[in-house]
Design goal:
about 75% helix; about 325 residues; two-stranded antiparallel ribbon; mainly alpha; two-stranded antiparallel sheet; 12 helices
Length: about 325
Amino acid sequence: MEHDSHTPWEFNGSFHQPSAFLMMGIPGLEALHPWISIPFCALYLTALLGNCVILFIIRRTPSLHEPMYYFLSMLAVTDLGLALCTLPTTLGLFWFDVRRIGFDACLAQMYFIHILSFIESSVLLAMAFDRFIAISHPLRHPAILTKSTVLKIGLAIVLRGMVSLLPIPFLLKRLTYCGKTELSHSFCFHPDIMNLACADIKVNVFYGMIILLSTVGMDFIFIVLSYILIIRTVVSLTTKEECLKALNTCVSHICAVLVFFIPMIGLSMIHRFGKNVPPLVNTLVAYTYLIIPPALNPVIYSIKSTHIREALLRALCRKRGSDW
């Protein structure tokens, strides 16, 4: 990533490929970027510190070594990765007006952003499955979701994301680009790069749509089905207190699902059908999708999860006691 206002091009055989793209901040508010960076810094700091605290608490608390919190650890690691993927280019643009990013660096950033997004979607599905088993079959829960099973689920999630998205950078590299090199965001996003090409992008559009529907789309459908089954189980419970207790264990996860999927669906719809949507709306939805979930998830789980909250308070009390 370099500071450069020019748009250099290189000629590769029979097609043109830019050596760099130019990133955009918030349209119409370029003069306010240094001030706008303050809330972004707060969000990034919350994401980095919050998820590190979640990981530390789970690691140091033996009572939290169970499937629900193993999946929460996976979510925290994914959120850390998402925050770190966009932090350098976003703050570099806001602070130092560094707009230029190399073509290959842009493809690498795009690949990791999409992988981590797909992984987050799959982890949220795994957490929904864990809640369904815990509520519907509480006695069989430890036998079904053993440590080795959780580990296998985690590996399958990572492999699915990596393999399904592997062709995307190569599909983008084969395209011809001419004239436009300005991205819509301060990070690289597949539809954004694809739309800068002046070649036929039908293969890219078709593959991107198939992958999105077969991964994130299916994850969302199975999450909804899991909660339909959970509600059926909860309704059959004998007392109101048991119903509320069962549903209360799902509140944090439901919030995390909404915080992740609503802006993701919105951004996908804008890129595919919202040609007349104002650039500012597109930019704000994109930032909401990539920055808000990593910052909010640790806050949601710290507030709503009694076990996380108690473990955090114990850790703080031990630290305060050692200072005395």
